Amino acid sequence: MNKKSLLNADNKDILIVDDTPDNLRFLATILSEQGYSVRKALDGHMAITACENLLPDLILLDILMPEIDGYAVCQLLKSNEHTRKIPVIFLSAIDDILDKVKAFEVGGVDYITKPFQAAEVLIRVKNQISLRTAEQKILNLNIELEKRVQERTLQLELANQELKRELCERQQLQSQLLYRALHDPLTNLSNRTLFMERLDDALKLTQITSDYQFAVLFLDGDRFKIINDSLGHLVGDELLIEIGNRLQTLMGDRDILARLGGDEFAIFVDKVKDISDAQNFADQILQEFSYPFKLSRAEVFISASIGIVLGNINYNNPQELLRDADTAMYHAKSQGKSRYCVFTHDMYQQAIKLLQLENDLKRAIERQEFIVYYQPIVSLSTGKISGFEALVRWQHPTLGMVFPGEFIPVAEETGLIAAIDTWVLQTACRQLRNWQEQKVIDEDVSISVNLSVRLFSQPNLLAIIAQAWREIQLKPQNLKLEITESAIMENSQAAAVILQQLRECKIELSIDDFGTGYSSLSYLHRFPVNILKIDQCFINSLNQNPRNTGLIATIINLAHTSEMKAIAEGIETPEKLAQLRDLGCDFGQGYLFSKPLAAKSIEDLLASNPQW
Ligand code: C2E
Ligand code: MG
Ligand code: MG
Question: Closest Cα to atom 38, ligand 1: which residue?
Answer without folding.
Answer: 391
